[in-house]
């Protein structure tokens, strides 16, 4: 299950117009290869392909699993660093960045610097 392949995304529309595209964070629109962000118009992806409390706990870079289980306590900082790097690399051309932090509602996981 996932977002139907014939349904365009903002990224696929912008990519078709010369934009560099990236998604960092939670996707939750399908975790099978044909539904991942890199198959839906995003040049780069770094994130969890579903809710952070679902198992297996995996972190992906593009279509590869790079961490399992995920260290949730540093995820916000890592997403932010990926986004900052992408902005720096893309600042001289049109780009679209979708940053979807995993913890917007309650602090399910926080590093020591933010736990107080």
Written overview of the protein:
The protein has a 5-stranded mixed beta sheet. Strand 3 and strand 4 (64-67) form a beta hairpin. 22% of the residues lie in helices and 20% in strands. The chain has one domain (11-102). The longest helix has 16 residues, at 75-90. The protein is globular, with a radius of gyration of 14 Å. It starts with 9 loop residues before the first helix and ends with a helix. The model has no long low-confidence stretch (mean pLDDT 91). It has 3 helices and 5 strands. With 116 residues, the protein is α/β, with parallel strands linked by helices.
Overall number of structural domains: 1
Helix vs. strand class: alpha/beta
Q: Please give the radius of gyration in angstroms.
A: 14 Å
Helix content: 10-25%
> If helices are DSSP runs of H or I spanning 4 or more residues, what is the number of helices?
3
Could you tell me the strand content as a percent range? Answer: 15-25%
Helix-strand topology string: HEEEEHEH
List keywords for this structure.
single chain, five-stranded mixed sheet, 116 residues, 3 helices, alpha/beta, 20% strand, globular
In short:
With 116 residues, the chain is α/β, with parallel strands linked by helices.
Present the secondary structure layout.
Layout (H helix, E strand, L loop, with lengths): L9 H6 L4 E6 L18 E4 L11 E3 L2 E4 L7 H16 L4 E6 L11 H4 L1
Parallel strand pairs: 1-2, 1-5
Antiparallel strand pairs: 2-3, 3-4
């Amino acid at each position: 299950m996932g977002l139907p392949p014939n349904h365009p995304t903002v990224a696929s529309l912008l990519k078709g117009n010369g934009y560099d595209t990236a998604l960092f964070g939670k996707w939750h629109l399908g975790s099978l290869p044909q539904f991942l962000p890199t198959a839906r118009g995003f040049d780069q992806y770094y994130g969890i392909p579903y809710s952070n409390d679902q198992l297996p706990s995996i972190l992906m870079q593009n279509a590869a699993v790079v961490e399992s289980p995920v260290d949730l306590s540093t995820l916000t900082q890592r997403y932010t660093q990926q986004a900052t790097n992408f902005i720096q690399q893309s600042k001289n051309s049109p780009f679209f960045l979708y940053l979807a932090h995993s913890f917007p509602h309650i602090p399910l996981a926080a590093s020591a610097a933010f736990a107080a």
